[in-house]
Amino acid sequence: MPEKIDDLYSFDRMIHEPARLAIMAVLWACESADFKYLSMATGLSKGNLSAQLKKLEKEGYLQITKTFKGSYPNTSAALTKDGRKAFDAYRRSYLKLAKELS
After folding, report:
1. pTM of the model
2. What domains sit in the chain, N to C, each tagged with a CATH number?
3. Inter-CA distances, 95 with 13, 43, 89, 98, Å
4. Helices then strands (H, E): number in the chain?
5. 60: which DSSP letter?
6. CA–CA distance, 70 with 41 (Å, rounded to integer)
7. Using one digit for the tens of pLDDT, what is the confidence trace for 36-86?
């Protein structure tokens, strides 16, 4: 049993943080999402969401696109290929551990 708990330490810490995990999970389910949708879906404040998006972008897990809808700025995010791969590995590891512990 202790070796299974040690598996927690192998999880991707960039994804494992709750705010970033929520962002990754939302983006996993869609092609891309705009800032307003991500804020509503994750419950994160604008400032926290912005900070977490920047960290995930810096890690190479997502791409941020800034455009305009009419005359209003619009920021959207999408998982990169590396981001999808990393989240899939995280998800599989988490599910495997949950199954082993049940």
Report:
1. 0.89
2. 2-101 (1.10.10.10)
3. 16, 24, 10, 5
4. 6, 3
5. T
6. 24
7. 999 999 999 999 999 999 999 999 999 999 999 899 999 999 999 999 999
